[in-house]
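Question:
When you can, review this sequence-structure pair and walk me through the tokens.
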Amino acid sequence: MFIPPGFCQQSVSTSLGKMVYYTPNLPSASPQYGKPSLVFLHGFGGGSSAYEWSKVFPAFAFEYQVLAPDLIGWGRSDHPERNYLVEDYVSTILEFLEQTTQEATTVIASSLTAAIVVRAAIARPELFKSLVLSAPAGLADFGEDNTRNFFTQLVKTPVIDRLIYRVGIANRDGIRRFLEERQFANPKRIYPEIVEAYLASAQQPNAEYAALSFVRGDLSFDLSLYLPQLKVPTTMIWGKEANLTKVEIGNRLVQLNPDAIKQYLVLEDSGLTPHLELPAIAIGQIRKHLSLFF
């Protein structure tokens, strides 16, 4: 799988196994280790991994201690055979921060993971300096249930679920279709490297467990019930053309906690992952956020 030039792979142990992360390839005596940390967390979907942020986080490597993990069940991290729940990711994200950061840090996360980070920041606010959340949504927000459809019910059927994963997701056509339909506003921006990086993650042994938990809705929850409790200063970013989580959801969520949500930025001509589709714009918006705190 793709690792940006100048970065190396490291890992920490969590309660659910090894979590791999990517960080600048610098000696321990480097001044970088005295700099504030930035943690980048990818979202969920077919073949997701830290690659999702790989066009963004190298831009911050000289100013911050950059950490970009593959979440448990994704990328190069361990893939325990289990039905994953929200609590699994809340706990392993907190364990990762406890082991890799020395003080409260800025966490940058996307989609469902961004929503889970809100719950983590509510549970342990002392670990978080600020948040940048790209299209945070629990996928059951404001009481809506997105799992009541034929495909989701089919994926809940044993044996058939793994067949659907192999045939419909873990191949080049499936990955490209997922990126076109779920993540990008403009399919012409999906170049071969992106497809190959997602495919490599999707084809890891036992990769279907986390992916199917996501598709079945096992990880979905109503973020609107939690967001009013958030105290950590937050910037919320939303791609205007996001299909999976419409910008209208963002408009409603931001009104729930104007004290914590300091900025709300709607990005034109981008989908669910503007940081992969239009990375230069995402870098600029993150820098704008960081200027408020550093």
